[in-house]
Amino acid sequence: MFKRGCGLEFLLVLCGLELSWSCPRHCICYSAPSTISCQAHNFLSVPEGIPPHSERIFLQNNKIHQLLRGHFSPTTVTLWIYSNNITYIDPTTFQGFTLLEELDLGDNRYLRSLSPETFHGLNRLHALHLYRCGLSALPNNIFQGLRNLQYLYLQDNHLEYLQDDIFMDLHNLSHLFLHGNRLWSLHQNTFRGLRALDRLLLHHNQLQWVDRLAFHDLKRLTTLYLFNNSLTELSGECLAMLGALEYLRLNDNPWECDCKALSLWDWLKRFRGSTSSVGCVAPASLAGKDLKQLRKEDFPNCSGSESLHQSKTKSWAGTDKVSLKQEPQPGQPPQPRPHHPHLGEQFSSLPTPLPQPPPAINGVQAGTEDSPNLVTPQRSGRSRNCTRQQSRGGKGKGPNEVHTSKEMADKEFSSSDFTGKYGHTSPDSLTTRRKNKCTPRTTVRPPSGVQQATNMGNSQWLHLPLSSIVGLLVLLSARFIIQ
After folding, report:
1. Which run of H or of E encompasses 266?
2. Count of CB atoms within 10 A of residue 138's CB?
3. d(C-alpha 273, C-alpha 402), whole Å
4. What is the per-residue pLDDT across 98-151, written as a single tens digit (0 to 9) for each?
5. Strand pairing partners for 41?
6. Is Signal among the key words of this record (predicted)?
7. Predicted confidence (pLDDT) per residue in 273-309, tens digit
């Protein structure tokens, strides 16, 4: 007969809870996969006695100050240490962790600096969280060798500068979050090597200058957020290199809509994706207007050299005709989104769109002051009905409404019959019209009270000349008199 203590232990093991002598106090240890959960217990340091073969370790929401070599086992696959008080990470802490796939160090506001060797050797790492860590700079080669990394979270730090080729080894990176920093410029080789990047979030920075070749390697980028910066101009040639772009946010920048803006205006006319407004602040005559809605006549005294029709056309001709959604390269494995059950504490939803851009990014809902709505392109594949009168006003939705499907990754727009021209908005902001739309056809009806002929017999007399009718009447009258 089992003793009471042994029976309890046996029942807990059957339920998947493994009581191990090495399980730290105040922690819970599970098996299959081996997991240790020590979250929210005000630990000042990594607890001792962590089982040596633990695969998942959860230490979030404590007060841990430093990470040293020997705190964890190289068998670790998932390690969450976000929302602690970490100020120092020994460069050898993760040495030999060849199985580590997800490392969350986010929300350690006093970390501030990292050694270049901190993440070296993490060959299987696919998600690295360094958001809200007080980082003012990233050392050279800090991401060296992370060729399987897909998600890099660097938002809400104090970064002012990104050196050339810092992301060079991140060949499989698909999501790069840099919003909420202090970046003021993007150089030609800032993003070199990121050929698989799908989403780049740069909003809420202090960007004043973007090199015209800054995005030259981002051939698969679908989402670009540049809103709420200090941009006064942006070359259309710079954006023309983004052949797969679908979602673009440029609002809340002090755009100068003079001759320098002509190439951007020209590119926006051809872009078939979804964009926000591009509000002009200068010159005074155009202040408050949307650059996309301007006409060529609004750029007087501007030579054609600023236009994309001129010399720049040859260098990227045909970029406006590419498909909005590029297929993955043959033989490339799919890149699933990692599971982040804890991210709800910091974000209401991940950019899934951004815009979905997602319905919310970093807690900002679409349609709020920090997340103005986008202009959504019409879906292709629908024939234009020239006999159906277009409704005016519809449901009262404006031209900048966001169609927030559950995930921005659900966007599947083709471009076979999309004209690429934006609609015009009536003064009441409720009616959206497309340029060159078909004029509704109306059926021509007879005047009121006039009946149309119902058979050919009754209508034949209407087609005889008057002289023929008179002659026929004369013949009939003469024949009657003779009789």
Report:
1. helix 262-270
2. 20
3. 12
4. 999 999 999 999 999 999 999 999 999 999 999 999 999 999 999 999 999 999
5. none
6. yes
7. 999 999 999 999 999 999 999 999 999 888 754 444 4
From residue 371, alpha-carbon distances to 187, 198, 403 in Å are 26, 20, 14
DSSP H/E element including 482: helix 466-482
- Locate 272 and state its tokens: 């078939």
For residues 457 and 405, give the distance between their C-alpha atoms in angstroms, rounded to a whole number: 62
What span, in angstroms and rounded, lies between the C-alpha atoms of 422 and 265? Answer: 12
Please, are residues 56 and 78 in contact by the beta-carbon 8 Å criterion? yes
Distance between CA atoms of 137 and 149, rounded to whole angstroms?
20
- Per-residue HEC secondary structure of 304-354 comes to HHHCCCCHHHHHHCCHHHCCCCCCCCCCCCCCCCCCCCCHHHCCCCCCCCC
Domains of the chain: 22-150 (3.80.10.10), 159-326 (3.80.10.10)
The structure's pTM equals 0.64
- 8 Å CB contact between 272 and 418: yes
Residue 278, helix vs strand vs coil: coil
Kindly report the number of other CB atoms within 10 A of residue 36's CB atom.
24
Q: How many angstroms separate the CA atoms of 156 and 177, rounded?
A: 9
What are 385-419's pLDDT values in tens digits? Answer: 333 333 333 333 333 333 333 333 333 333 333 33
- What average pLDDT does this structure show over 149-177? 98
Residue 244: partners with Cβ closer than 8 Å, 6 or more residues away: 219, 220, 221, 222, 322, 323, 324, 325, 326
Phi, psi values for residue 339, rounded to 5°: -85, 120
